[in-house]
Every structure is written in structure tokens, then in C-alpha cells.
Amino acid sequence: MCRSYSGARARSDPQLRVSLVHEWLITWGGSESVLLALSRMFPQAPIFTAYHAPDPRTRAAFAGKDIRSSALKILPLVARTYRLSLPLMPWAFGRMDLGQVDLVVSSSHAFAKAVAVPPGALHLCYCHTPPRYLWDLYEEYNRGIAGRLRGPVMRRLRKADFAAARGVHEFVANSQFVAERIRTTYGREARVVYPPVDVDLFQPRLRERTHFLAGGRMVRYKRLDVAIGAANRVGAPLVVFGDGPDRARLEALAGPTVRFVGRVSGEGLQELIGASWALLFPGIEDFGILPVEVQAAGRPVIAFRQGGACETVVHNETGVLYEDPSEEGLAREIRSFEPSAFEPGRCRANALRFAPAMFESGIRDAIEAAFAAHVKR
């Protein structure tokens, strides 16, 4: 039974005791920006996490916060090997002591939602995604001999993930795309609250256009190889920013019109956006913050019509959503693209739908509704 908070009281009561739970605090990403927004909403809430071994940006963002690591913190070389301990995470989160709290908010893309919630507390899970390596992309992530060898462990983790989902009182998804995956994976409904995007940081700085743009974290599912292949076919100037484990392979694919610039600062990214015709976004993201940032800076997006891009890009108004996932499919869009058809002001106005204030309002509404639904149960 949850404490007898009415929805309105739960929304505004400064005495509401809250704990935040997050997978790990190591590198900065979209889920960390969500956690930071939650921490600003509940500044007194401790943050429970499997590992706390932050890079400089993450350390600075959470400076002064009460961060409590799991028993896994004793493992050596945490910053490099934390993903290898995934099979231990359901156990680690399950034995955490959150103390006496009224509300637990987990920020989860793996096993933070497996946290042991004290009796009488409400558990709201902000789900970035059900783990794709356990569910819809299981075969892709577990190919060959290595996949067969780890099969028993992965199947055990899938059972643990499903069991953890059953312990959540209410799910909040970061997109309609993820809400549908929560429905098909866990058989649960989810309210949608889009993640906060720092749209004020990305202002229109429009310059003479010299290139298309692609980039971010260089991993295979981002499909940056499709953007590079399309640029090669068309002979289009393409600037690729970012870094990651797939960088060497991607650089080997690049033709003479493709330039890699590595990691860039926020200021540097704004300069690249301002000089671009459009962002090429061929991957399938659960939400995808980068297309929103580009639109906030006044430029359009050419995105594959699946995933979160369908919710963040307005077709033929703030960009183009195309159907053919192949290199040639994207190359056709590049050939026919008319940058002048997209007004910078319209792109920015669309991006403002994802401002941090909208996230905070949505989360407070979700908490209010969750307490109203579960009071006296």
C-alpha cells in the first residue's frame, strides 16, 4: 500500500521523500541528461547507481549530489569493464537499501528498474528502452559462436528483466516508439514524456552552407555507414563528428568528400550545424536528441522514417522522413533535397516542444497520476 498521497499533494509536497536510481554514472549521454533533470526537480534526492566512475563532464554535472554506488563498485577498472558485469546487476540493484521513501524514480535502460523498492513506496520507471540486446535485437547482438556461448546468461537476464518490469508501478517512456516496445515486451502501458533537450544552448547561427552533417557516438546501430555510403554515391560533402568503437571501420568507408572531425564541443557542434544543409540521420533511435538539437539551431533533418525521428521531425516542414533504409535510398534524398524549402524559424519552433520545462511538467503530471492510481492499494 502506497502512502496516502493525493495526486495534487504528491505533485507539490516538499516533504515527499524521493530516491533516484540510474544504471551507472560513467560517461555522458541522453539518459544522464534525464537523470540531471530529475535531480534538479528533486534536489534532496540521493542517486543510487551501480557504478560511479564519471568522466569529467558527468562529474561536473553531478557535483555536490549524494551519489551512492552498489556493491559492484569494488570491481577493478570499473570505467572500462562495467558492461561485463551486466549479469550481476539485477542482484546488485535488488539488494540496495533506499531507506524510507515515498517515491522511487528509476532512469532505466537495463536493470535500474530492478531496484528493491521499500514497502509502501511508489516506483515510477522512466524507461529509455527495454534492453534491445535482450529483446527485439537479441539475434543481432548474439550472433555466432560467442552468441551461443553467452545464450544461457542472456536468457537468464531476459527473465530477470521481465521480472523487474513487473515490480514497476508505472512506466514512463521517452517516446511513443518506446511505449509500444514496452507494451509488446512487458505487456505494460506507458505514459510518454519526451526527454529534456537543451534547446536554449542550440541557437540559430546560420552561415553559408558547405556540407551535410552526421555523427554522434560511433556505434553500428547509428548506421553512420549508410550516411557515408550515400555521400560517396552522390559526391556530397559530408562532415562526420564524434567518436566511438566503430570509427576505424567508418573512416575506411569514407570517400574523398567525407571528412571526420572527431569529438566537438557544444560550440563546435553549433558551428557545424550552422554551416550545414541538413543532418543525415539514417539510424533507428528510441528518441534521438541530436535531430532536436539541429532543429533548435535552425537546420532541417533527413531521417529514416522509423523510431523517435517520426516524433521529432515534421515531414516536409522541419525535414524529410524517407522510407528506403539503403544507401541508395538516402542518396536519392540528398540528390533531391532543397534546403531553401525549410524555414529556420519553423525548425526551431518544433524543437521547443522538447524544452526542459516540458519534461518537468510531464514528469510531475506522471507522478500525480501514479499516486492517484495507486493510493490505498
Total of domains: 2
CATH homologous superfamily heading of the largest domain: Glycogen Phosphorylase B
- The ordered H/E elements are HEHEHEHHEEHHHEHEEHEHEHEHEHEHHH
Derived from helix and strand composition plus strand pairing, the structural class reads alpha/beta
* Outline type: globular
Which regions contain 5 or more consecutive residues with pLDDT less than 50? Answer: none
Quickly name the level 1 CATH class of the largest domain: Alpha Beta
Main sheet: strands, sense, barrel? 7 strands, parallel
Query: What's the architecture of the largest domain, going by CATH?
Result: 3-Layer(aba) Sandwich
Average pLDDT metric:
90
Helix content: 25-40%
Tally the helices: 17
Q: Please indicate the percent range of residues in DSSP E strands (runs of 2 or more).
A: 15-25%
Query: What spatial order of strands do you see in the largest sheet?
Result: 3-2-1-4-5-6-7
Radius of gyration: 21 Å
Looking at the structure, the CATH topology of the largest domain is: Rossmann fold
The count of strands amounts to 13
Q: What's the N-to-C terminus distance?
A: 5 Å
